[in-house]
Structures are given as structure tokens and as C-alpha cells.
Design brief:
- This protein has 386 residues and is an alpha/beta fold.
- The strands form 4 sheets. The protein has an 8-stranded mixed β-sheet.
- A hairpin with a 4-residue loop joins β16 and β17.
- The chain folds into 2 domains: 172 residues, FAD/NAD(P)-binding domain, CATH 3.50.50.60; 138 residues, D-Amino Acid Oxidase, subunit A, domain 2 (D-Amino Acid Oxidase, Chain A, domain 2), CATH 3.30.9.10.
- It is built from 8 helices and 20 strands.
- Bound molecules: flavin-adenine dinucleotide (FAD).
- Flavin-adenine dinucleotide binds next to α1, β3, α2, β10 and β14.
- Its EC number is 1.4.3.19.
- One of its GO terms (cellular component) is cytoplasm.
Length: 386
């Protein structure tokens, strides 16, 4: 709604239309708030656009902190209902699939890594089925006959993040919320000790003013100082990820991972081979080296990719902070909330992030599940304290 002064009025403004911002916006609109999302490009055009879409808290348990595994499992458990709701409300399809994930070995080094992984699962109370090479090839006959064995994780699933973002944006609008595209927020306005709105620059060069009582920052890996913000920088930095996009004959049903790479069949016939992890600042250039490595490892696992059409590379910036855990909760200024730093798992963690952040915004009480992710943990200790 536009006021007499030309401002847009909303209860809540969400800055950033990635999978996190859109999930939070939908959850709050569902709970009766009037929500406006401001997105400087198109919904889903940040890291969300490049994401593989694995919903895999278990496959990566070896390298994750226990808190991340717990939040990931919590979020994964919410997915079937989350998808049912968003598809029904938007009328779209998210590409959610529940075939599970295979982790396979094509050399002895991999086989030893799989043994370690099984140990990790045992120690963390997680489950996976051990598979012989024949069982792996029964499930996925197009994999290399060099496969030595594998694991099946029934719980780890997949979704198409681009479709999910489009569905969330549509669902928000269907519920009466608003998505403003091409609006780059540059200022959070504070009145006294409380947020009272924000200012963005529209694509047409005109300022967009918003009056609201709450703002959620969900800007992914974008530079913190792009926005004049009454909140300390949690130390967001971009971790570049590149993946190869191929198209052609359907070669796989499951997400297939090895210790080197992953292969993700997409609902529209594409196959993703991913992904690099690079400390390259804001460099977004696709590189020959990344394509070379990913295709080489991909071909070792799935020789048939040789004949697929090469569509190009998807490149994105994973939003990370020092401890590689998300930052979810209130900033120092009243009415300002953060939902950033989801690093490698933002798609997986969107439903739980949205639900717990909404609980916190409504009740003023920190949900126990967010205790490890609250913004305060990253503030420098006051002088004199160790
Ligand atoms: C190659 C790759 C593969 C990945 N694979 C997976 C996977 O399999 N599973 C998984 O769970 N995660 C995966 N991820 C991670 C996942 O993509 C991120 O964690 C997730 O997208 C973070 O979502 P977000 O909404 O916080 O950020 P983003 O998706 O980056 O969205 C932020 C949005 O904010 C907008 N924005 C920024 N600043 C402003 C501003 N000032 N004003 C208005 N708008 C602004 C941006 O344009 C952008 O659209 C992958 C990432 C990469 C790069």
C-alpha cells in the first residue's frame, strides 16, 4: 500500500529475494503480517540460482558441526509439508524428489573414505545402507562399472532451487504479500532506537521508501556495507561455487555423490555436476579449470556424460561467516533481524530458518533451536573479557 508521502507501507520488509528471504516472507505473511520483499535483481537470482538443490544433512555430516546437522535434519523433516504448501499456494512445481542419495566409491581411496563416513554415521546416530558394487549398479546402471561400492542415504533428498524460489515468490503474492524486483536497498531508517523503514533505489533510478516496523536482512553474500545498516557486520564473505550444467538423455534417478563431486539430475532433463569451493572474493567468472575438473571427475563416475550437451557453468557466491554457521535472529537495533550466512545449506535450511525466525519475531523469545545461530555469538568480546 502506498501512503500520501509516496512511501510503501508494510508490517515487515525483507531485503533479499533468495530462498531464505522468500521463505521467511511467506512464513510471516502466513502468520498474518503484511510482507514486502525487496530484491535488487529477480527473485532467486543470488546463490539460489546456482544451487544444486541437495537436501542433504546426512551425506555431509562428516564435515559439519553437530548444530548444523541438527538444524539440517529438522529442516529436512519439514520439507514434504513445506513443498505441499508452497506448490498448492503457488500452483507451481518445485521439483522435490525423494529417491534418496547414493555415495559411491570408484577407487580405494574413496572406499576408505566411505568407511570413515560409516563410522561418523554410527557415532552420530545417523543411518545409511551399505551397498555392494552390484547393488549400486542395480540402482544406477549407467554409473561406471569401476564402482567399488557405496552407501544409500534414504533421507537425503533434492529440489530445484530455482523453481522453489519462483514458487515461494508466487505464493507470497497469492497470499497478498508483495515482491518488488529491481529495488536495491541502501539504507535502513531508524527512529529513536527502533527501525522505522528503509530506502531503496529502483531500476528506474527513483528512490523507493518503505515504512515498516520490522526489517529482515536476507542479502546472502552481498557486501555488508552496500547498505547503511544499524547492525554490526557478522563478517559475511562469499565462497565462490561453480557447477557444470549438462542436458540430454536421462542417466540418473538419484543424487549421486563421490568424495570428489556430486551429480544431481534436475526435473527438466538437466544434470548438474558440482561444485567448486573457492575463496575468490566477488569474482563470478566461470573458469576452464573448474569445468575441466568437474567434467573429469563426473566422467569417471558417469561415463555417459561425455555425449551430453554442455549448457555452461552456473556460478554463485555462498554466504559464509567465520564459523560457517547461519546467523539468524535480532540485530542490536529493535525491529532489525538477520537471516544470513547459510553457506552450503541455505536451500536445505530455508523451512526451519523461516519457522524459527518467525517464532522469535512473534514471541520475542529465542527458540532453543536457534541458540547456536544467534547474531550475538559473532560480536567481538568487550575489552577486558577473554
Ligand atoms: C554452486 C553452489 C551449489 C550449492 N548447492 C546447494 C545445495 O545443493 N543445497 C543447499 O542447501 N544449498 C546449496 N548452496 C547454497 C545455497 O545456494 C545458499 O546457502 C542459499 O542460496 C542462500 O540463500 P540466501 O537467500 O541467503 O542468499 P541468496 O540466494 O544469495 O539471495 C540473496 C538475495 O538478496 C539480494 N540482495 C542482496 N543485496 C540486496 C540489496 N541491497 N537490496 C535488495 N536485494 C539484495 C540478491 O540479489 C539475492 O537475490 C549452493 C551454492 C552454490 C553457489
Amino acid at each position: 500500500m502506498t501512503t500520501e508521502s509516496g512511501s510503501i507501507r508494510a508490517d515487515l520488509a525483507v531485503v533479499g529475494g533468495g530462498v531464505i528471504g522468500l521463505a521467511v516472507a511467506c512464513e510471516m505473511q502466513k502468520r498474518g503480517r503484511d510482507v514486502l520483499v525487496l530484491e535488487m535483481e529477480e527473485p532467486g537470482s543470488g546463490a539460489t540460482q546456482a544451487a544444486g538443490g541437495m537436501l542433504g544433512p546426512i551425506a555431509e555430516a562428516q564435515i559439519e558441526e553437530p548444530e548444523i546437522i541438527t538444524l539440517g535434519l529438522d529442516s529436512l523433516a519439514r520439507y514434504p509439508e513445506f513443498v505441499r504448501w508452497v506448490e498448492k499456494t503457488s500452483g507451481g512445481e518445485t521439483g522435490f524428489r525423494e529417491e534418496g542419495t547414493l555415495i559411491v566409491a570408484v577407487n580405494r581411496d574413496h572406499l576408505n573414505e566411505l568407511e570413515h563416513l560409516k563410522e561418523t554415521f554410527r557415532s552420530k546416530g545417523l543411518t545409511a545402507d551399505s551397498l555392494t558394487s552390484e547393488q549400486v549398479l542395480d540402482l544406477e546402471p549407467r554409473l561406471s562399472p569401476r564402482v567399488l561400492g557405496g552407501l544409500k542415504i534414504r533421507e537425503d533428498q533434492r529440489i530445484d532451487p530455482r523453481r522453489l524460489a519462483a514458487c515461494l515468490a508466487q505464493a507470497l503474492v497469492t497470499m497478498g504479500g508483495t515482491v518488488l524486483t529491481g529495488a536495491k536497498v541502501h539504507d535502513i531508517v531508524v527512529n529513536g532506537d527502533k527501525v522505522s523503514g528503509l530506502v531503496a533505489l529502483g531500476n528506474d533510478g527513483m528512490p523507493v521508501r518503505v515504512d515498516c516496523t520490522d526489517v529482515v536482512i536476507a542479502t546472502g553474500a552481498s557486501r555488508w556495507d552496500d547498505i547503511r545498516m544499524p547492525a554490526e557486520d557478522p563478517g559475511i564473505r562469499p565462497i565462490k561455487g561453480q557447477l557444470v550444467r549438462l542436458r540430454g538423455e536421462t542417466l540418473l534417478r538419484h543424487v549421486v555423490r563421490s568424495p570428489d563431486i556430486y551429480l544431481i539430475p534436475q526435473p527438466d532433463g538437466e544434470l548438474f555436476v558440482g561444485a567448486t569451493m573457492e575463496e575468490m572474493g566477488y569474482d563470478m567468472a566461470p573458469t576452464a579449470g573448474a569445468a575441466f575438473d568437474l567434467l573429469r571427475f563426473g566422467w569417471q563416475l558417469l561415463p555417459g556424460i561425455y555425449d551430453l550437451e554442455f549448457l555452461g557453468m552456473a556460478v554463485g557466491q555462498r554466504p559464509a561467516v567465520d564459523d560457517h554457521m547461519p546467523v539468524i535472529g535480532p540485530a542490536d537495533t529493535k525491529g532489525l533481524w538477520l537471516a544470513v550466512g547459510h553457506f552450503r545449506k541455505g536451500v536445505l535450511m530455508a523451512p526451519a530458518t523461516a519457522s524459527y525466525l518467525a517464532d522469535w519475531m512473534e514471541s520475542g523469545e529465542m527458540p532453543e533451536a536457534l541458540a547456536s545461530f544467534a547474531p550475538g555469538r559473532l560480536s567481538p568480546a568487550p575489552a577486558g573479557e577473554s
